[in-house]
Specification:
Elements (H helix, E strand, L loop, with lengths): L1 H17 L8 E18 L17 E13 L4 E18 L7 E3 L2 E2 L7 E14 L2 E7 L4 E14 L3 E8 L4 E7 L6 E14 L5 E10 L10 E15 L1
Antiparallel strand pairs: 1-2, 1-13, 2-3, 3-6, 3-7, 4-5, 6-8, 6-9, 7-8, 8-11, 9-10, 11-12, 12-13
């Protein structure tokens, strides 16, 4: 996989250098950072929809982010295309504020006593991906400030799935355990959509601010009963030159 990514980057550099002459305004490099949140949705495979209604959803929002670089090819004032490389962190968490005997504590441990010394348990699952974002963009407006919307697809490879168990005790102490997550799908495919603003600093530099949404269409786990899917939302801030 690393060899393919290296070849991909070399190809991007070659295309960009070839377009830097008389068409330099059509090809730009960009760097971006997109902080946000992610949430796990568990759906039944028998067609009955979500296994949990929103008011009783056991999963909490988790902080998520993506950071990377892209090559932007502008076909004309309206239509453009982006392709690049990014590192993303997504996942979910759940908090048990009244743990009892048999409850999960993280790192394959369970609550094996009724000792009330544990006040709460938070389980965080972190999925780190190396991804190749691809999207088409539509720009509308005149002058330096324009509206921009994007629609794309982002394939990715899971590189470091980790689970963190945080145990808080009545006395105020905190115990933190980290372990690797097994049996998680190693490939992801996430359609994305965004809508925001584009501001041109000059003929060669611009800034884009875009609220965005992404939804994984491949289940995290291979189950005959249910599928687990990540919904991610954030604000993507990009600088292009």
């Amino acid at each position: 996989m690393k060899q393919y990514l290296l070849l991909f980057l070399i190809a991007l550099i070659s295309i960009s250098m070839n377009g830097q002459g008389e068409e330099s305004s059509k090809i730009k490099w960009g760097v971006f950072f997109s902080p946000g949140v992610s949430h796990l949705q568990v759906k039944s495979k028998n067609g009955s929809g979500n296994l949990f209604d929103f008011s009783h959803d056991p999963y909490d929002l988790k902080i998520a982010y993506s950071i990377g670089g892209v090559m932007n090819l502008q076909f004309n004032h309206t239509w453009g295309m982006e392709i690049g490389v990014q590192y993303s962190n997504r996942g979910f968490q759940e908090t048990n504020e009244d743990p009892t005997y048999g409850d999960y504590l993280g790192n394959d441990n369970v609550y094996e006593t009724n000792d009330p010394s544990i006040s709460s348990v938070t389980i965080k699952q972190n999925y780190n991906y190396l991804e190749l974002p691809f999207r088409f963009t539509l720009t509308a407006g005149k002058g330096n400030l324009c509206f921009i919307t994007g629609l794309g697809i982002t394939p990715g490879i899971l590189i470091a799935p980790r689970e963190v168990g945080i145990i808080e005790y009545e006395e105020g102490d905190t115990e933190r355990n980290t372990s690797r997550i097994e049996d998680i799908r190693s490939f992801s495919l996430t359609p994305t959509i965004s809508l925001g603003l584009e501001y041109h600093l000059n003929n060669n530099q611009m800034i884009r601010l875009e609220p965005n949404l992404g939804y994984s269409i491949l289940s995290l786990t291979d189950s005959d009963v249910s599928g687990s899917y990540l919904l991610t939302g954030g604000l993507r801030a990009g600088f292009y030159f």
